[in-house]
Amino acid sequence: MPKVTVFYASFGQGHKKAAQALGDSLGIAAFDLLDFCSPFIARLYSWFYISITNNFPYLWQLIFSLSKPKLSSQLINRLHRVLFASFFEHLEAEMPKVVITTHFFPADLIACAKPQINCRLISIITDIRVHPLWVNPAIDHYFAALEITKQDLVALGVKPEKITSGFMPLRQGFNQSLSEQELLKKFNLDNKPSLLFVCSSRGVFPHLKNSLDSLLKDFNVFVIYGHNERLRRYLESIKSENLRYFPFYERIWELIFLSSVIITKPGGMTIFEAAYYRKPFIFTHYIPGQEKANMDVLISAGVAKFAQGEKDLVEAVLFFSQSRGKLSDNYPFTVNHIQPALNRIIG
After folding, report:
1. pLDDT in tens, 48-71
2. Cα–Cα distance between 72 and 309 in angstroms, integer?
3. Residue 33 in contact with residue 103, Cβ under 8 Å?
4. Hey, what domains does the chain have and what are their CATH numbers?
């Protein structure tokens, strides 16, 4: 296999998870683009992204839209080439033959360095719908999870033969054979259907407190609460044999496999990991822009609902739990491990 390097940009966990999963499967490290700029710039970028998306989501939607025109995109790219100058030095020192990115920021910088390092550039799209910043003429091949993602790329001028759809980097645990009864025994739970609440790292989770008492009557409930210490204290106060909660859970494939419904926000990698097990979604919140677009696709496909309150959430849980087998048998798309397809591309 040729020398391969993997890059991501840690704006949100999805791009990072995809890159690290891919790096683990290839036996190599995955590098964060923000490690190749000054600490001040890295903190500024992270603070800006988190602050805007968390506190002013509709401003992020405006920024997302304004970045689409070609002139805006060119100005952004020029700025990044100055701020991440050490990134070029790293590439020229490593001289990889194949560079894989899970975010559009590194792809643009690598495109500038391609004449010097003579590499192939592969981009893995970690959302369902494609923003124009994902597209660069220097990219040799794209991987997309769904056919609609491929259609977006084609509409943006990418040749169909440069796109492989139906594949995403999934963590190695998703290759394991799992048993529902063994997992129930592991978590010391009754033989009830299970629900998984996956909180973002920022700890946002609408409607959970108001619906939890009702749901615990008929379901086992898992909660990933992230950094939300207030939520943790609340969960500790609930005395239920059907509740399990964690700040993070490394073997997340066990919880996804065991759960009938995934309640979360429509971030890319959570969607693809759950879709691998053909699970339905209930979304309680989203970041306007790419996450809203992800959600709309899944709702249109019949595998997701958006809950605007406690009543919506409970009704959606009951709807999907009652149609569990039928939905799994007729799931509208398939997401596979990327490794075999990637091996065919990189040789």
Report:
1. 766 665 566 566 556 656 655 665
2. 38
3. yes
4. 4-169 (3.40.50), 173-329 (3.40.50.2000)
